Backbone:
């Protein structure tokens, strides 16, 4: 696995991740949780579980399509090939789409106001990262990436 460059703003994610897992663990173990549920609906909970499963499957299919070219972030020194096959033929960002499915699904299962905030902030962080990566991909791959971008949507 390769890691690309990080921005100082990327480290703000750490406290959000810790609180996010705290909320999930306290909900699963039926411990006191921060905030109250916004609604309680079994059908919506099952839809949330389906979103999580779709997200996990999409994530695994993305890793398979990436193969040995998998990297985290932007690695301009060793970019590898532009992956356009598999799930990358229907979304330029299937891994981020998977994360959005999972974030949405967890919120639907545990509809807490804090997780709603996480969902909104998560969408913002993911979109911010995608925009950063798109600029780098255009710089690295040029016309090849521009043709791919015109043909394939950003998210699922």
Residues:
């Amino acid at each position: 696995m390769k890691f690309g460059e990080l921005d100082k703003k990327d480290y703000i994610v750490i406290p959000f991740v810790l609180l996010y897992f705290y909320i999930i663990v306290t909900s699963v173990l039926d411990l006191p949780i921060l905030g109250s549920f916004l609604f309680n609906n079994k059908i919506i909970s099952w839809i949330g579980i389906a979103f999580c499963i779709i997200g996990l499957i999409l994530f695994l299919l993305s890793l398979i399509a990436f193969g040995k070219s998998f990297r985290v972030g932007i690695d301009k020194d060793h970019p590898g090939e532009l992956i356009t096959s598999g799930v990358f033929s229907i979304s330029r960002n299937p891994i981020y789409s998977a994360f959005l499915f999972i974030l949405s699904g967890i919120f639907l299962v545990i509809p807490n106001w804090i997780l709603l905030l996480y969902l909104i902030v998560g969408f913002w962080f993911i979109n911010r990262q995608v925009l950063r990566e798109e600029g780098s991909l255009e710089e690295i791959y040029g016309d090849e990436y521009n043709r791919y971008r015109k043909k394939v949507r950003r998210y699922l």
Observations:
- The longest strand covers residues 2-3.
- Residues 72 and 131 are 15 Å apart (CA to CA).
- Helices lie at 13-28, 42-66, 94-109, 113-141, 143-151.
